[in-house]
């Protein structure tokens, strides 16, 4: 009996010991920075570091929210994310349903594989591709489309009005393969008996999609949307920083919270406002996750994350 | 009945056309990138980037082959970082996820929450940056490309834990224990061999993350000797921007001729992306599987 309990203890110790490297990493990479958020209430002094800099109360925040940047970056982050969530979901669900309706299994697979290609490439390379299309002097659109049509070339990188469309397009292009694969996997998992029953009841393809496929996708759509709503205060830094090539004239429509925080830290040397913006993002972002989960819990408990 | 069949055929044809157009939209931009890199410089300046250049030329690639010491170096760093980072990451993730999947682990739920919570809340760039630079001094070391953010991801830990819970039977572990095997032996001789496809999927996703990462280099590196290929690409954009915005005042101090020409820049972008595009067809099954497993359960 005693021998057994010793063996049991050894087993537990062995299991714990496996987790040590990962636990240390999570503490350093994730947990210490959480406590480091206090820097938003301090006047950062490089020589004293994050923990010993003197407190300043709320001055970083009053300083930040006095600027028009605060409103601007919040608006950009929220509106782009909203557009991504709505258009991205509709687009990906439509493609997943279409893949499911196709009869050729080979074609289905080939399309899936090709749709995923943009997802695999880094945002830096994507920014080069966008540049190949939009460059004023050498770009494909100006040189091969607009000029031959007799139109004047557009200076894309200095004209803010085009960028909301460009950024949404690039986001959809890069991400639709990924999300349509997730939805398609769910569609495949729908019980085929439901389709057979629908056919016996005389349902046509549209009715089948409406009454069987879409309800079958409901939980996945809710989960995916919930995850996106939870991240609605965050943006893909690469998309908003690399793709517009950090063009100052576009800042009004491309500056999201992440871009502002980065620029404040590295270029403007404005750690105070930058850290206040970072704190604002972390806390409101966290509240959004809790709120989104709470709402889903009310509607459909099984779809909730926790 | 007849009309329904033809109606269906039309429907199928329309869907194929839409899908094919989408495939073209996915691939054409890469084709433009590649043809641009293969265009003769004078043609590029005259006609811009195009799908069918008037004059083809390998000059950009030959130039890189001749003078591209920085490119080769950056390439070596990307390969090295991807290899080391992925190996260490796999080991850490598996060793963290396996105990979480065992019922015998005390405090299993608090420990799972410890991982899960990092997906809900984080400190963001500023505290992370200050900690890594002020406390750990990883700026301008190779560790900057390996450690921050990428080494172990809660999402992948949870994905692996779910896999182990669902696919490794308790009886198997019990049997190995009765035979006197220790936990490490069980993990590496019993559990890992049974999980090869899932581990391969994880390896591809983590490896892709390392290969494509440019953020860590942007945040923590100023020393060009340590740049990965993505950082080199990023730096070229910054330099060109800098030249354009400060054209008159700084042109004298910054040597314009050192900046790669428009064609060469595209060639470097191709070199940065091509390994993924070449490897992908052989491993696409695992990528698709990884997305499905991660997306639905995560």
Biggest sheet of chain B, open or closed, and with what strands and sense? none
| Largest sheet entry of chain A | none
> How much of the sequence of chain B is in beta strands?
under 5%
**CATH topology annotation of the domain at 64-121 and 160-188 and 218-303 in chain A:** MetI-like fold
Total helices of chain A: the number is 14
pLDDT < 50 stretches of chain B: none
Please give the oligomerization state of what you see.
heterodimer
Helicity level of chain B: over 70%
Beta-strand level of the residues of chain A, as a percent range? Answer: under 5%
Mean pLDDT of chain B: 87
CA gyration radius of chain A, whole angstroms: 25 Å
SS class of chain A? mainly alpha
CATH topology of the largest domain in chain B: MetI-like fold
**CATH class annotation of the domain at 64-121 and 160-188 and 218-303 in chain A:** Mainly Alpha
Shape of chain A, please? globular
Number of strands of chain A: 0
CATH superfamily placement of the domain at 64-121 and 160-188 and 218-303 in chain A: MetI-like
Number of helices of chain B: 15
The domain count of chain B comes to 2
Principal-axis shape of chain B equals: globular
Describe this structure in words.
The complex is a heterodimer of chains A (306) and B (298). Chain A has 306 residues and is mostly helical. Chain A has a domain at 64-121 and 160-188 and 218-303: MetI-like (MetI-like fold, Orthogonal Bundle), CATH 1.10.3720. In chain A, 72% of the residues lie in helices and 0% in strands. Chain A has helices at 2-36, 49-52, 59-66, 68-101, 105-115, 123-134, 140-146, 163-188, 192-200, 205-230, 237-241, 251-254, 257-266, 271-299. By secondary structure, chain B is mostly helical. Chain B folds into 2 domains: 2-57, no CATH class; 68-297, MetI-like fold (Orthogonal Bundle), CATH 1.10.3720. Chain B is globular. Chains A and B meet through helix 1, helix 4, helix 5, helix 6 and helix 7 of A and helix 1, helix 2, helix 4, helix 5 and helix 6 of B.
């Amino acid at each position: 009996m005693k021998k057994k309990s010793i063996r049991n203890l050894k087993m537990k110790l062995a299991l714990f010991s496996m987790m040590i490297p990962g636990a240390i990493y999570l503490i350093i990479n994730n947990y210490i920075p959480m406590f480091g958020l206090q820097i938003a209430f301090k006047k950062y002094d490089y020589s004293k570091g994050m923990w010993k800099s003197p407190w300043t109360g709320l001055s970083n925040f009053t300083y930040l929210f006095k600027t028009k940047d605060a409103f601007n970056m919040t608006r950009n982050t929220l509106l782009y994310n909203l557009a991504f969530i709505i258009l991205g979901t509709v687009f990906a669900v439509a493609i997943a349903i279409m893949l499911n309706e196709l009869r050729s299994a080979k074609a289905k697979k080939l399309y899936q594989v090709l749709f995923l290609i943009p997802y695999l490439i880094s945002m830096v390379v994507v920014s080069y591709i966008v540049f190949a299309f939009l460059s004023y002097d050498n770009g494909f659109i100006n040189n091969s489309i607009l000029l031959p049509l007799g139109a004047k070339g557009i200076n894309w990188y200095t004209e803010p009005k085009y960028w909301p469309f460009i950024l949404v397009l690039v986001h959809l292009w890069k991400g639709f393969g990924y999300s349509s694969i997730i939805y398609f996997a769910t569609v495949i998992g729908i019980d085929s008996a439901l389709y057979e029953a629908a056919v016996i009841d005389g349902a046509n393809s549209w009715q089948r999609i409406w009454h069987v496929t879409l309800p079958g996708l409901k939980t996945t759509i809710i989960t995916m949307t919930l995850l996106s709503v939870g991240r609605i205060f965050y943006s893909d830094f690469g998309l908003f920083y690399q793709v517009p090539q950090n063009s100052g004239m576009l800042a009004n429509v491309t500056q999201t919270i992440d871009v502002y925080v980065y620029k404040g830290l590295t270029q403007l040397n404005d750690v105070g406002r930058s850290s206040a913006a970072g704190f604002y993002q972390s806390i409101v972002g966290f509240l959004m996750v809790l709120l989104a989960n709470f709402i889903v819990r009310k509607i459909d408990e099984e779809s909730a994350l926790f | 009945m007849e009309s329904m069949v033809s109606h269906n055929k039309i429907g199928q044809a329309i869907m194929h056309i839409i899908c094919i157009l989408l495939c073209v939209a996915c691939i054409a931009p890469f084709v433009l990138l590649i043809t641009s890199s293969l265009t003769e410089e004078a043609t590029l300046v005259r006609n811009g980037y195009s799908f069918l250049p008037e004059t083809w030329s390998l000059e950009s690639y030959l130039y890189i082959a001749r003078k591209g010491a920085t490119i080769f170096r950056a390439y070596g760093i990307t390969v090295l970082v991807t290899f080391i980072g992925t190996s260490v990451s796999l080991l850490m993730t598996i060793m963290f996820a396996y105990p979480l999947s065992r019922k015998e682990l005390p405090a299993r739920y608090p420990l799972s929450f410890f991982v899960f919570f990092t997906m809900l809340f984080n400190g963001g760039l500023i505290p992370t940056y200050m900690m890594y630079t002020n406390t750990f001094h990883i700026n301008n070391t190779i560790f900057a490309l390996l450690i921050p953010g990428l080494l172990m991801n809660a999402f992948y830990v949870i994905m692996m834990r779910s896999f182990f819970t669902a696919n490794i039977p308790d009886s198997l572990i019990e049997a190995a224990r009765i035979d006197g095997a220790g936990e490490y032996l069980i993990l590496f001789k019993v559990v890992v061999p049974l999980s090869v496809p899932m581990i391969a999927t994880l390896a591809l996703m983590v490896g892709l993350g390392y290969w494509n990462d440019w953020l860590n280099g942007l945040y923590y590196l100023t020393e060009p000797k340590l740049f990965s290929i993505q950082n080199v690409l990023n730096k070229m954009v910054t330099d060109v921007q800098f030249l354009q915005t400060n054209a008159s005042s700084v042109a004298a101090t910054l040597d314009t001729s050192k900046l790669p020409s428009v064609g060469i820049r595209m060639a470097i972008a191709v070199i940065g992306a091509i390994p993924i595009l070449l490897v992908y067809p052989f491993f696409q099954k695992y990528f698709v599987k990884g997305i499905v497993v991660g997306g639905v359960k995560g």
